[in-house]
Amino acid sequence: MSHEILTPTEMGEADRLAIAAGPFDGMGLMRRAGAAVAAAVLERFGGAEAADILCGPGNNGGDGYVVARLLHEAGVPVRVWSLGAPRQGSDAAIAAAECPVTPKPLSDFAPAPASVVVDALFGAGLSKALDGDAAAAIERCSRAGAPVVAVDLPSGVSGASGKVLGAAPRATMTVTFFRRKPGHLLYPGRALCGETIVADIGIGAAVLETIRPACFQNVPALWRERFPRPGAASHKYARGHVGVLSGGPTSTGAARLSAMAAARAGAGAVTLLSPGGALQVNAAHLTSIMLRRADTAGEIAQWLDERRPGALVAGPGLGLQDEVGDMLLSLAGIDGGELGNVVFDADALTHLSRRREEFLAAFQMPGTPQRVLTPHEGEFARVFPELLADDGLSKLDRARRAAALTGGTVILKGPDTVIAGPDGRAAINANAAPWLATAGSGDVLAGICAGLLAQGMPPFEAACAAAWLHGEAGSRFGPGLIAEDLPGLLPPILREISDLPEGR
Ligand SMILES: NC(=O)C1=CN([C@@H]2O[C@H](COP(=O)(O)OP(=O)(O)OC[C@H]3O[C@@H](n4cnc5c(N)ncnc54)[C@H](O)[C@@H]3O)[C@@H](O)[C@H]2O)[C@@H](O)CC1
Ligand SMILES: Nc1ncnc2c1ncn2[C@@H]1O[C@H](COP(=O)(O)OP(=O)(O)O)[C@@H](O)[C@H]1O
Ligand SMILES: [K+]
After folding, report:
1. Does the beta carbon of 11 sit less than 6 angstroms from any atom of ligand 1?
2. Which SUPFAM superfamilies does its entry note (predicted)?
3. What is the CATH classification number for the domain harbouring 275?
4. Are 317 and 250 in contact (CB under 8 A)?
5. Where in the sequence is the domain holding 47, given as residue range(s)?
6. Which atom of ligand 1 lies closest to the CA of 91?
7. Distance from the alpha carbon of residue 92 to the mean position of ligand 1, in angstroms
8. Which of 86, 138, 401, 478 is a good FRET partner for 374, with 20 to 30 A between their CA atoms?
9. Final residue in a domain of this structure, among 188, 213, 238
10. Is residue 504 part of a domain?
11. Which of the ligands is closest to the CA of residue 148?
């Protein structure tokens, strides 16, 4: 699967590079784009009585004129509704001239019953909010409930951010070209695209060597090579040791969920560090997970010094007391030789928001542990309010900025989880299902991530793998899922992604 994601600007670059390399010129690419859309319309909506093609003034509209001509040639009754003539001499103008159907003004468009609408108003060139005749046409389309096939993107959806600018139709199907854009995977755009088809229009993958995209759909190919596998002579500590900090006696469940998840993700040993008051309750619920009493930052530091774990989960159920904040701050600045990686989740993120400058200063100290931060949108808003307030930033941009600010890997959670590394790489997760929106699910994600980090997986890859495994487990289980189910769902998925020969 081609998992690179291109911004609209990068897609423009792909277009230019492909035209320069040949064999297709701009008109050739447009003809192939239109042909891919027409084929999809005929395949899925071949029974439609008519097709209404909405054409904008740019190249997206140009694709629309190609679709109109091809559907007309295939015997489909076609009506073309134009928002304005394409610029003279443009490829779109050539496509319009080649189209045998005379366009009518878009302001007159009313979807006919049993017709399919092809939305070719705007694609990558969307530069401002939809208004006037375009917005009115989309509104009429939505009211009529006609099926919509979007060319490149539903018009009004920003390809860069997935945000709706003004208005956008809810497409049944979107046909995009060469590679997906962020707007196909980030909400609300993702929901408006319907099924997305990526069509090959003759742009060679070689253009990617020049463009060097830094954003990917989160698929196993992105991290599979770095996925840990135990060697034949491995032992439990060699497979990675994870520490998990437990909260007090009434809030221990979150840490146990993380601990179980870390173990299922392959860590050879997991220790729960529990305050004395919570030892009994933790002991009553743990079997393979080890338990160690640690009441103070000093006792935690002593354990780290003794055991030197590969990763620590800090935050789930931990509490918001000031001394917890002090302890977390000391962990952020600890020697990376004593503690390889920290996953800051849940309450740790609230402490981070309260003492941001101190944490950021600790993160900048050389030789401190690598970090993964796992905010949901509410936590993100607390820690990075200035990024949330900036309307110009997409979810992808926000995760990247947060990663750059903290020098860590950020998993910005949600239905369209974005993983961003401090080096600018980013991935958008697309395999999660809403069954994961259940209490404790995030604690499991933090634990999976720590389990992979402790086994030596680099943070960006570990974070991507964790989000994918978590999404896969939730989607496969479906309705009725609770967080306790998730760790136990991992083994068959791990087996599938491992290189073990069949049957072993
Ligand atoms: N990049 C590529 O490789 C290819 C692109 N193709 C098509 O070309 C499209 C991009 O074409 P363009 O760059 O011409 O962009 P668009 O056709 O998306 O829109 C550009 C025009 O619309 C105007 N505009 C933008 N937003 C508006 C709004 N809200 N209200 C009114 N006017 C608005 C712009 O000022 C410009 O005149 C792609 O989405 C795709 O459909 C295909 O032809 C095949 C190849
Ligand atoms: N609608 C959704 N679709 C897919 N995944 C979701 C959805 N809502 C939440 N999730 C995922 O579920 C997890 C919830 O984590 P979080 O909000 O921290 O929960 P908790 O704090 O209860 O553990 C995250 O991984 C998030 O990405
Ligand atoms: K469109």
Report:
1. yes
2. Ribokinase-like (SSF53613), YjeF N-terminal domain-like (SSF64153)
3. 3.40.1190.20
4. no
5. 4-213
6. 43
7. 10
8. 478
9. 213
10. no
11. 3
Do 197 and 273 lie in a common domain? no
Q: Minimal CA–CA distance to 198: which of 164, 153, 148, 157?
A: 153
Segment 123-155, tens digit of pLDDT:
998 999 999 999 999 999 999 999 999 999 999
- pLDDT tens digits for 189-223? 999 999 999 999 999 999 999 999 999 999 999 99
Of all atoms in ligand 1, which is nearest to the CA of residue 26?
Answer: 45
Please indicate, yes or no, if residue 502 is contained in any of the structural domains. no
Does the structure's ipTM exceed the value 0.90? yes
Q: Which of 59, 138, 197 to mutate to test the pocket of ligand 1 (most atoms within 8 A of CB)?
A: 59
CA distances from residue 218 to 1, 85, 430, 471 in whole angstroms, order as listed: 11, 40, 7, 10
Q: What is the position in ligand 2's atom list of the atom closest to the CA of 444? A: 23
Distance 122 CA to ligand 1 centre (A): 5
- Entry pTM: 0.97
Does the beta carbon of 62 sit less than 6 angstroms from any atom of ligand 1? yes
The domain boundary residue, chosen from 179, 213, 247: 213
Nearest to 282 by CA among 315, 320, 255, 243: 255
Neighbours of 502 (CB within 10 A): 5
d(CA 36, CA 472): 31
129 labelled ligand-binding = yes
Contacts of 323 (CB under 8 A, 6+ apart): 297
Query: Which of 357, 340, 339, 351 is closest to 375 using CA atoms?
Result: 351
- To test ligand 1's pocket by mutation, which of 24, 53, 82, 127 has the most ligand atoms within 8 angstroms of CB? 127
207 and 230 co-located in one domain = no
Rounded (5°) CA angle 280-284-286: 115
Ligand nearest to the CA of 118: 3
Total domain count for the chain? 2
Residue 414 in domain: yes
